[in-house]
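Write out the 3D structure for:
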Amino acid sequence: MPSSDFKGETLYLRIKQENGYKIFSPFFVPTLDTYDKYECRLGLGYTRIASEMYGLRTEVTIFVPTGAGVEIRDIKVTNISDKPLEVDAIPVLEYTHPNALQQFTNADWIPQTMQSKAIKDGEFIVLIQYPFMFRDIKVNYFTSNLPASSFETDRKKFLGENEYGTWANPLSLQNTELSNTEALRGHNIAALLHRLGTLQPGETKRLVTQLGQEMNYEAAKRSVDVYRSPKTVDEALNEMKKFWDVYLSALQVETPDPAFNSTLNIHNPHQCHTTRQWSRYLSYYQLGMGARGIGMRDSSQDILGVMVNDPQGSRAFLKQLLSFQKKNGSALHQFNPLTLEGNEGDSLEREDRPHYYSDDHLWSVLCVTAYIKETGDVAFLDEKVHFYEKDPVEGVSVLDHIRRGLTFTRGDIGK
């Protein structure tokens, strides 16, 4: 897709002028305004984007707190000009259906299922969104720590002119307020208009947004209340720093080359942590649409990369991978992490060939061995893990899984 395309979540700022508003995104995309200064820093567990244009400096720190299921965007807007500026901030996001692949293959029906509602929470607004079949199972929520004067959940109305408006220039932002529409079908978005007021030279306003998913609004309310506090957001970012201090301290290497030390001690462990979390599920290779999911071979290799830093997490994930082994000792090639449905992958394309990969089940042998060598936890071999067929229901030992995998390979040597 073009780099200028809108990609799920952004921020618009607008400055009050005599004849309307100057509207732009401090992220450059999607408005493509020329900036005076731009920085993007990818840290350990967070991203920080800073830009300066039209007399405003915007700094946005994006992260997911350790152990939480909510994305935080900590937005700071500072007037760096020599005159007062009347500023509004409008964070915007567009939802996808939980089955992202169906959004492409059934583009007529899927938008008819999408619904949004606005809940008044004291002086704040919480936007709730879900496909109607997930209403009592899981809902998305979006809110902020400042009162919003209006909101929008209908993409057609936000872009304007029956959706012939563009993300580069949403026509609704030329209006004083958004329409306060609760979309009960169609392409759902979430937009909150915050009036930051007149910022004096040097003055900063802070806006914190939350995007998450819970079973219902009542469950989401706990997170909403916690992260409305900027102090809690600061503490959460500090806790993330502590997590990485502990994670990286498991192995530190000292060589005469500082750049090599940085690669070994920070960048490589951080990258291995990321690939362990996402495998190939979210990337331009996979796009997170569920068609491929978590690969058995790939994720087994990913475990080897984090074994030293996170042995207990590796243990738990290894048990999950073993649960996609079949009774005959072979293994499925991949599984969807959201539905836990597995499949044989591309091996299904040839009817005259075996419907399995010859090595998927063997990687667990290497992973279990590496885990025991790293931790000395020989008792792990006695842990019960079920097969994909759930037969027997109580499962068999990890050691039995390993034996069946080796036995399957010995009996599958071809002709």
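The longest strand covers residues 188-199.
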